[in-house]
Amino acid sequence: MENTAVTSGTQEKAALAGRTPSESMAIMTELILPAQANLLGNLQGGQLMHYMDIAGALTCRRHSGHEVATVTVDRIEFRYPIHVGEVVTVTSKLVWVGRTSMKVRIVVGTEDFKTHQSKLTNTAYFTFVALDETDRPVMVPPLLPQTEQEKKDFEHEQEKYEARKRK
Ligand SMILES: CC(C)(COP(=O)(O)OP(=O)(O)OC[C@H]1O[C@@H](n2cnc3c(N)ncnc32)[C@H](O)[C@@H]1OP(=O)(O)O)[C@@H](O)C(=O)NCCC(=O)NCCS
């Protein structure tokens, strides 16, 4: 494994062992039942966001080794409705890590168990902050992007982070 961390850069943070995005990736599978549906017979948006939040938190707990709190939800897209009886897969993967905050990309897809066809239905970005025992933000390990896409995503999010800090 590559030993050089791509991080937002602090001396303290270098002391923590870095982890790759794949190491903390989480995949949740849910069968959609009538209790999770709206009046149209589709999965409720709020319920879907709950699944996304859980999957994202699992990834960030795994990466940081701490309890985490949701800080932001960005760019959530509802491309297709999800119907009762469908199986939903919620995949959460880290795209960026700061000092105490972590950003995950969530991808949701459905699979038809008869045709085996899958469909990408939703995407979103969630930011979580790692908390210590007193519920204060605590430093997290660096992220070690491996693939070209992971490195590109990290740099893109780093630029957005720096722009937000400048504001
Ligand atoms: C999370 C929380 C403890 C952060 O407290 P805070 O005093 O803002 O702490 P900081 O200013 O040190 O910010 C902590 C991190 O959050 C990030 N952050 C804060 N506001 C942010 C925002 N609007 N967008 C993105 N990141 C943000 C900061 O950049 C920082 O990350 P960094 O250390 O990587 O630079 C506090 O905002 C909180 O308790 N929020 C409620 C969380 C909650 O109840 N969530 C829902 C249930 S889990």
| Number of structural units classed as domains | 1
Overall form: elongated
Rg, Cα atoms, Å: 17 Å
| CATH topology term | Thiol Ester Dehydrase, Chain A
Q: Can you tell me the CATH superfamily?
A: Hotdog Thioesterase
User: What is the tally of beta strands?
Assistant: 5
Keywords:
binds coenzyme A, 167 residues, five-stranded antiparallel β-sheet, Thiol Ester Dehydrase, Chain A, 4 helices, disordered N terminus, alpha+beta
Descriptive overview:
The protein has 167 residues and is an alpha+beta fold. It has one domain: Thiol Ester Dehydrase, Chain A. The chain is 28% helix and 32% strand. It has four helices and five strands; from the N terminus they run ααβαββββα. The chain has helices spanning 11-14, 21-24, 45-64, 148-166, and strands at 26-31, 67-78, 87-97, 101-111, 118-131. It has a five-stranded antiparallel sheet with strand order 1-3-4-5-2. The longest helix is centred in the first third of the chain and has 20 residues, at 45-64. It is elongated. The N and C termini lie far apart (36 Å). It binds coenzyme A. Coenzyme A (COA) binds at residues 69-72, 98-101, 127, 129, 137. Coenzyme A binds at residues 69-72, 98-101, 127, 129, 137.
